[in-house]
Structures are given as C-alpha cells and as structure tokens.
C-alpha cells in the first residue's frame, strides 16, 4: 500500500506523455517555383519516409482528379485532400500570392489552390490549370526539391527555396529560421516532500546542459543538489543534502511549452538526524509540468531500509 502513490503517479505520467508524442511541429519549410505555372509550399513535420510519402499521396490525388467531373470550370476553386480519408472541392475568390524568384519576391496571380494534409507534412500548391497540377512534370520536380532538402537537413530549422527553369534546378538556397545552439542552464527551486509520512521542505539548485533540435530543447544532462529541512522539536531543523545526477527528455514538440520527463540518481552527502541512514541512495522519476512545477516519485534505498517518497517542486 505504501508504494501505491508512486506507482499511480508513474502511470499517470506515462499516459500523459503518450498523448504528447502526437503533437506536430514544423521542422522545415520548402518553397518551390516551377516556371510561371506553380508555386508549392511544404511544411515538414516528420522526415521519415518523407519523399516516398509525398509522392505517393500526390500521385493518388492526381489519379482522382484526372477522372473526376466535379472540377468547377468557370470559377476559382480550392481542393483539400486528406490521403485515404477525404477530398473536398470548394469555390473561392481569386487570390494573389507572392513567389520567390532570382532572390526577389515577385507577385503572381493564381486562381486555384490545392492542400494536402498529412501527419508528416502539409503541402499547398497554387496553380491556374488542372493540367499543371496533375502533370508528371510536377511530380518529378517536387521529388527533386524534396530530395535536396533531405540531403541538407540538419538540427537547425530552415526555409529551403527552389526555382526551376524547364528541367533544371537553377536555384537552391536555405535560410536559418532559428539558430539556437546548445544551452547551459542554471536554475533553482523549492520543494515539498513526503518522506516516511513526514512533510519535509527543501531548497534546490541545478546546472543543466541542454541539447536542442530544430530550436527545441530535447535532451538535458544535469547535476543538482537538494538541501532538505527536517523540522524537529523546538522549531529546529536537521539538514540533509543529496547530490544528484540526472537525464531528462523533452516530450513536447512546442517551442513555447516543455514537457520534461527524466530519471535521477542521488546520494546522501550531508546527513543530520535520523531521517536517513548514512549510506542512503535515491532514485527518482522527474516530470516537469511546464516550466515551473515538477513532480517526482522517489525511492530511497540504504543497507537498512527501503521506502518511497514524493516531491512537488516549484522552480525559479
């Protein structure tokens, strides 16, 4: 029964993090101009099998459009396609969009738009005639642009721009959307602990080395120190200190909100009173709820006893 709370909290963390993995984040973007016929923008969420997925979805859409009789003839329209699920066509007003050309932005008018929505990417194509959208030329040139992007992909978020002259890729430039490198982070906090059915307060300090991917901190290695205040009779307190080493991984794909989950190993380096034995180790599962609140089920182990603990922390 005494292990029920840590087990329940661990299960809750596992459930929440499985939901977090489903979040989408734009890693890179592609702009492609094919002569004066098409402008394409691709927002990339997942690079795994990206090229084959895009080409498969596009070719399936082209086959559907070649046989359908529902394309408006005298009015601009917008196509939305979710592979293997649904295709819709809506009429719309003519829009003017901006296309990159030879290092400059040039305005062109396209009457129609097509959007393909996928878990791995989102593609928007602006065009005037259905023949341009369903041509093999589009498939071949988009394949070349995606392949070039995959080759130049790295841990920085980028905007890749391509332009075609007939069958030649005449321009290929990329600009860093974000250039945040690895970071060294110093933080502090206070915590409330439940240890042996006693409430124990603590002060903590931590220094962490964070590894970023696409400008999002994803992995963190840290060393921390917890100074625990065990209040006893006469309003005095026994001070105990744990030195900790830990690793955590950010399960969030949001630039603004983090969801750190990690493991921590600690050892009692400063002992006073009878709350802990001299050779006490501590293992913890740390979950940061956003940027300021954390919760950590813990297990204390010594040669004499083993017991659970729970810490709720507030960082600053």
Task: Kindly describe this structure.
It is a single chain. By secondary structure, this protein is an alpha+beta fold. 18% of the residues lie in helices and 53% in strands. The protein is built from 4 helices and 18 strands. Strand 5 and strand 6 form a beta hairpin. Helix 2 runs antiparallel to helix 4.
Q: Main traits of this protein?
A:
316 residues; alpha+beta; Porin; 2 domains; eight-stranded mixed sheet; eight-stranded antiparallel barrel; 4 helices; elongated; disordered N terminus
Strand content: over 45%
Please, what is the average pLDDT?
84
Count of distinct strands = 18
Note the run of SSEs as H and E.
HEEHEEEEEEHHEEEEEEEEEE
Q: Mind describing the biggest β-sheet?
A: 8 strands, mixed
**How many separate helices?**
4
Tell me the Rg in angstroms: 28 Å
Give the termini separation.
Answer: 34 Å
Name the structural class.
alpha+beta
The largest sheet has its strands arranged as 4-3-7-8-2-1-9-10
What best-fitting shape do the alpha-carbon axes yield?
elongated
Poorly predicted regions are: 1-23
Helix content: 10-25%
- Counting structural domains, the number is 2
